[in-house]
Design brief:
Layout (H helix, E strand, L loop, with lengths): L17 H20 L13 H9 L5 E5 L1 H7 L1 H13 L1 H24 L5 H54 L2 E6 L19 H12 L29
Parallel strand pairs: 1-2
Helix pairs in contact: 1-2, 1-6, 2-6, 3-4, 3-6, 3-7, 4-6, 5-6, 6-7
Length: 243
């Protein structure tokens, strides 16, 4: 497959591949570290939504509530996330279609080989087998390259959004009495949270705050945030031809 669908179901439960999970986790950690290092000097004026203001709020936080946020969902469901990931999927449609055509061609050759291998002489059979193997190797390389390229660009989009969103998370938590926020992007046991109720989840308020700050308009009514692109699967390996 070239890449995973952005949306896992109609309920918009989102998934990220392993590469994006790692980069998102790294950027979020670095963003919070930067906030802690960026606390302003006493008496210095700061903008209400700036990283320095968020760091100052976090350093003075006395809240005791525990909250949760689905970082992946916050990224993808933000107006900017929906726009940018839709554009990325659109950008890769030609490559998707090209690989689909190559996969169909290979599948057709394999069916031809399976149907005619008993009727072909050794030279014709070997020529067809070599053609299938050559096209298969080329397809595999192209698929791997496309997947890595897509994942890299997907990660760049997520990291760009998260860099701006991280201070908003810190500020919202501090302003609303939270002393700890846990990420629920991955379900237990892969994630740290066994169970939580919707009352402690701050994903939607953070999305709304980010939408206001980014100024990106919401997608048109009735349109899906991002249309999943059907993955290309590798053609089945044919049985060893009889000689």
């Amino acid at each position: 497959m070239i890449y995973k669908s952005i949306y896992k179901s109609k309920t918009s439960k989102l998934i990220l591949n392993r590469f994006v999970r790692l980069t998102v986790a790294s950027v979020f950690g670095l963003s919070l570290f930067a906030l802690a290092q960026a606390a302003p000097a006493a008496g210095a004026a700061t903008a209400p939504d700036s990283p320095s203001a968020a760091a100052a709020a976090a350093s003075k936080a006395t809240g005791t509530k525990v909250g949760t946020i689905n970082i992946e969902q916050a990224i993808f469901l933000s107006n900017q996330g929906q726009r940018d990931f839709a554009e990325l999927a659109k950008k890769f449609e030609p490559k998707q279609n090209d690989l689909k055509a190559k996969a169909d061609e290979i599948d057709s050759l394999k069916k031809q080989l399976a149907a005619q291998q008993d009727k072909l002489n050794d030279a014709a059979r070997d020529k067809l087998v070599k053609e299938v193997e050559t096209k298969q190797k080329s397809f595999d390389r192209s698929t791997q390259d496309a997947q890595e390229d897509f994942q890299a660009q997907q990660g760049e989009i997520g990291n760009k959004i998260l860099t701006v969103m991280a201070p908003l998370i810190v500020k919202y938590a501090s302003d609303n009495g939270y002393g700890m926020i846990l990420d629920t992007s991955q379900q237990w046991p892969r994630g740290p949270v066994i169970w939580y109720g919707p009352a402690v989840d701050i994903t939607q308020p953070v999305i709304e705050a980010f939408n206001v700050q980014s100024g990106v308009p919401a997608p048109a009514a009735g349109s899906s945030p991002t249309k999943p692109v059907k993955p290309v699967t590798k053609p089945a390996v044919p049985a060893t031809p009889k000689k």
